[in-house]
Amino acid sequence: MLEVSVNHVSFSYDKDLILADINMKVEAGAFVCLLGQSGCGKSTFLRLLAGLERPSSGDILVDDAPVMKAGLQRGVVFQDYGLFPWMSAGENIMIALKQRFKNMSFSERKAEALKRIKDVELPESVFNKLPKELSGGMKQRCAIARAFGIDPPILLMDEPFGALDAVTRAKLQDLVFDLWKKETENRKTIFFVTHDVDEALLLATEIFVFGQSPSKIIYNYSFKGKLKSDRTTMLDDPQTMQLRNNLIKIIHDEVRTKSHNL
Amino acid sequence: MKKFVMDRSGILLIFIGLVIAYELLTDVFGMLDPFLFRGLSMVIPAFGSHFDMLMKGLISSLGLLIPAYVMATFSGISLGVLIGSKKSLRKNITPFINAFSAIPAPLLTPFAIHLFPSFRSASIFIIFIGAFWPTLGTTVNAVMTIDKRYLENAATLEIGEVEKLLRVILPAASPTILSGCTIALKFSFVMLVVAEMFGATSGMGYFVQYYSDFARFDLVIAGFIFMAFILVGIMYLFDIMKVRMLRWTINN
Ligand SMILES: Nc1ncnc2c1ncn2[C@@H]1O[C@H](COP(=O)(O)OP(=O)(O)O)[C@@H](O)[C@H]1O
Ligand SMILES: [Mg+2]
Q1: Do B167 and A99 touch (CB under 8 A)?
Q2: Residues B133/B137/B138/B144 CA torsion (nearest 10 deg)
Q3: pLDDT tens digit sequence for A73-102
Q4: Is the peptide bond before A153 cis (omega within 30 degrees of 0)?
Q5: B163 contact A CB<8A
Q6: What is the value of pTM for the model shown?
Q7: Per the CB < 8 Å rule, is B156 touching A85?
Q8: Which helix (H) or strand (E) covers residue B53, if one does?
Q9: Whose CA is nearest to atom 5 of ligand 1?
Q10: Which residues of chain B make contact with A95, given a CB cutoff of 8 A?
Q11: Predicted ipTM?
Q12: What are phi and psi of A86, to 5 degrees?
């Protein structure tokens, strides 16, 4: 059971303070959406969780062990650049499986990669395609296939669908949600960055709203113990709509009062 | 075959244009010094009469060029990756790379002859030097400028050092490295002529040098044209390889 706790984390690039005193405690198996205007430091925060950057002060603990460097414990899905463009989609998945399952033979890895490609509803022929031969949605499906393939307890996703059209995005939201939900025990803890309130409402079990930089957490909402509406019922559910309006207002107010920072 | 020629009709037309222009300037109107610039009426027969010698020269030149170029590529890329990926090495070694690559390799000839046991090895060394520095320099640069996100991606997947080198760093740097290899290949051709100026008894560079001493400029020009064709041929093969290796970068 992996619990993530973030204690008094601050971070600066050179002299610019980007994150100021971030605190959160997240239970294993949560679907955490990190919401905020662009430029507020969501990606930076995710990079800290990934271990690609170290906090300037404070610490990030996963089950009481501080995050020291990037690794397979925390899988990452980037908005782009996730796949190596010189490898086929299949090779991209296989090279990840190879690091994760050292004892798997080549043919086992290949079979597993093919299975993962099918799990994300792509045809087998995608295995041999280069990333540039795939659409944006297909590339993200492959990145998801790889991320779930290495089966990390924690998965970090940085606006993974930000560059996709609305229909593709909706399909991929459902895909990720289903893959996450399917695992009844040892469900992954997902940190999902987005600037889209509706995306957060749809996916999250926990929502954290980041303020304008230097960023703090200005709002936190948990769906724990509450009934959650899905894509079709969301718009008719007064509670969800109230939360939605509330979130939008919080973000807008924050942007308005701190707009001198932009 | 027909398509191959059709695709290159532009090249063919320019080539024909150049040949005609040269023929007009020499044989027809005699506008260039006829002693240095021999017309095609003399150059073409020179090909015929010395074809065996040119072919023999080609083989002996390749015997110098191939080992020198292969060694330069191999050592230039290996050292370049090492230096490029270690900041401390890069910082301390770059000034020396700049200094050494500025020395015109022909000036090293006397040193090479002195240091190496045979003319052949000295010649290989001279060509090696010509190809080594551009390969090293571009590889260091290529590795240094790799998009950081690829390395971060590798870090999140815990890809090991050796695999990272072979499957992430080298491919990511390969577009720049390969353009360095192209420059190095052209350089090594230039150095071939220098390297064959001493000790060689055959070779394309030797051929040009030898007949220029006898002022047989019909043969010198024939030799130049022959070398140019060989270089174009080699570059063509090189390009095929490059396109295959860089398929992932080329937009449809
Ligand atoms: N490598 C960097 N060096 C300096 N500043 C950076 C760097 N990356 C991001 N920033 C700055 O940090 C702030 C937060 O950026 P980011 O985390 O990407 O925001 P978000 O993901 O919320 O859009 C921005 O003001 C950005 O300009
Ligand atoms: Mg971002």
Answers
A1: no
A2: 160
A3: 999 998 877 899 999 999 999 999 999 999
A4: no
A5: yes
A6: 0.87
A7: no
A8: helix B40-85
A9: A13
A10: 157, 159, 163, 167
A11: 0.91
A12: -90, -5
